[in-house]
Design a protein that fits this description.
Elements (H helix, E strand, L loop, with lengths): L4 H10 L4 E4 L4 E3 H16 L7 E5 L4 H12 L3 E5 L5 H11 L3 E4 L4 H6 L6 E3 H5 L8 H13 L5 E6 L9 E5 H14 L7 E4 L7 H12 L2 E4 L8 H10 L4 E5 H9 L2 H4 L7 E5 L5 H10 L4 E6 L9 E4 L14 E2 L3 E6 L12 E8 L5 E2 L3 H7 E3 L9 E11 L5 E6 L3 E4 L2 E4 H9 L4 E9 L4 E8 L3 H9 L10 E4 L13 H20 L1
Parallel strand pairs: 1-10, 3-4, 3-5, 5-6, 9-10, 9-11, 11-12, 12-13, 25-26
Antiparallel strand pairs: 1-2, 7-8, 8-18, 13-14, 14-15, 16-17, 17-20, 19-20, 20-21, 22-23, 24-25
């Protein structure tokens, strides 16, 4: 295979009347999805050029998927732009992409207008309504010519990073990277046409790529969970049970929402066979809560940044872990080479030795769209290979190998600090804090200007209890100097803890206290 549309066409042939995707408003069978996508593709092909971006300004839905595949039929690549984003971020993304066409399926069209996009905008309903019939002969010929001109290294999608640490970067991923990954992913986790995949991730977050294309490849059904349900545990559990979800590929924070809200005590989905999670470190305390209610489910820790097409390692949970331990990130997926590089360009091979995780192989993205400088900084030559070109992606994540030969995430390079003369991994403090009774989630930051470690946490424990427990485990220089209890961890668009939002809360609280003293 060289194009993901072969997944859709294969499943439409094998399972024409089977539901491919379903949301709260509508659903498409595989045959309907293929026909609609082809007609959308024929329409878009008259307005753009192959290998150009087409933006979709919409929330996730079955129609959004039909438009995605229509864009691919037109030989282009898609980018979802979330209508809830601030205008400045929308403008930033669109200025990078400069799309020929924007498909608008939102109620926030004024944001596009404010960003200067009034032409070449087509409403989603114009594309999706009344396009269930087959394409005309001339349309079929045009689509066939486009397909014949495409190769497997052509771009499929461009997902922008969260931008929490600076200007967003558009990660460009090719067809062959997704084809390679999904073939392995579905094989390892035994995903078949009998599965019902409960989609949690937004469509501009690469976790959703596993939902979308695992379903498309195997003929499974993708159930799009309404975003609003992730603030309503009762509706969420009713949905999972009523739709017979068998597989959840979710962000860690979404699963922690279930355990924090005690949702599984209300109802457990008896059809569920596997929970795969990624995006952040899974607190063992929350894993234990999941296992208590769902003891027969397979749990898998997935690791990998957007730049390497979803994931590069996995760990099937196969033993008990203490609450102050970290889950391994496991072993590489087939056909992905993992290197742990030391600062001097060598390789970390000794047990316990820490290195930056770097990835080589087909899964590595094409780079950052129209951003040669940052592409060159992160997508580099393998320093251990002096014989031929071997691009690697430098993740910026620090990893060590444990005594079992499993890789264990240590920290981001950015989160490794020097405090009181000692080099400290903030994630180590977070793991130990989360194990303290009365602490649900924890995140640490370093206030470099003050030389202090700041710990945010949710839960009922107080500072004295946390400090006392940590002193039993950690050396004094690793005990946080400042603590801030919050009602809930703010999450960014992709369901990860929003570090910048926490620091803003701390600054606001500090300013309010200062004002109260002087008021």
């Amino acid at each position: 295979m060289k194009n993901v549309l072969e997944y859709l066409e294969q499943s439409a042939k094998m399972y024409p009347d089977k539901i491919a995707v379903k949301d709260a408003a509508c659903s498409y069978t595989y045959e309907q999805l293929q026909n609609k996508a082809k007609c959308i593709g024929a329409c878009l092909a008259k307005q753009t050029t192959p290998r150009h971006p087409v933006c979709v300004f919409a929330d996730k839905s079955a129609d959004t998927l039909a438009v995605f595949f229509g864009i691919v039929y037109a030989g282009c690549f898609y980018t979802l732009v979330d209508p809830s984003f601030p205008e400045a971020r929308i403008q930033s993304m669109l200025s990078v992409l400069q799309p020929d066409v924007i498909v608008d399926g939102s109620d926030a069209s004024e944001k596009l207008t404010a960003c200067g996009y009034t032409e070449n905008v087509v409403r989603m309903e114009t594309l999706t309504q009344g396009m269930d019939s087959e394409c005309t002969g001339s349309d079929e010929n045009q689509l066939q010519q486009i397909r014949e001109s495409m190769i497997d290294t052509d771009p499929l999608y461009c997902n922008f990073t969260s931008g929490s640490t600076g200007t967003p970067k558009g990660v460009l991923v090719a067809h062959r990277s997704v084809l390679e990954f999904i073939d392995r992913f579905t094989e390892i986790f035994d995903i078949t046409e009998a599965d019902v995949i409960g989609n949690q991730a937004p469509f501009d977050f690469d976790v959703s790529v596993k939902d979308i294309y695992s379903g498309l490849f195997t003929g499974a059904r993708v159930e799009i969970v309404p975003t609003a349900y992730f603030t309503n545990p009762t509706k969420l559990m009713d949905f999972l049970c009523d739709r017979g979800v068998t597989l959840m590929v979710w962000a860690v924070s979404a699963l922690c929402f279930l355990t924090t809200m005690n949702a599984l005590a209300y109802k457990t989905p008896t059809t569920l066979r596997a929970i795969l999670f990624s995006g952040e470190v899974m607190p063992i305390k929350h894993l234990h809560k999941l296992q208590k209610y769902l003891p027969d489910v397979q749990y898998v820790n997935l690791y990998g940044p957007t730049e390497i097409t979803c994931n590069c390692t996995y760990y099937v949970v196969d033993r008990e872990f203490a609450e102050n331990e970290s889950l391994p990130i496991g072993v590489p997926f087939k056909n992905e080479r993992i290197l742990l590089l030391t600062p001097d360009g060598g390789e970390a091979v000794k047990p316990g030795e820490i290195g930056e995780l770097c990835v080589s192989g087909t899964s590595v993205a094409l780079g950052y769209y129209k951003d040669a400088e940052r592409t060159a900084a992160s997508f580099t030559q393998n320093p251990l290979n002096h014989a031929y070109i071997e691009p690697i992606y430098r993740t910026g994540d620090l990893v060590r190998v444990n005594e079992r030969g499993e890789m264990v995430y240590v920290s981001r390079k950015d989160f490794q600090i020097k405090h009181m003369g000692h080099r400290i991994e903030l994630s180590e403090i977070e793991v130990q804090m989360t194990a303290v009774p009365g602490v649900e989630r924890a995140l640490c930051a370093y206030l470099a200007d003050k030389g202090k470690i700041l710990a945010f946490y949710t839960g009922e424990a107080d500072k004295a209890a946390i400090t006392g427990a940590l002193r039993e485990i950690l050396p004094g220089y690793m005990i946080p100097n400042l603590f801030m209890q919050v009602d809930a961890m703010p999450l960014n668009k992709n369901g990860k803890i929003d570090r910048a939002a926490l620091l803003s809360q701390y600054a606001a609280a500090k300013a309010a206290k200062k004002e109260a003293r002087h008021g």
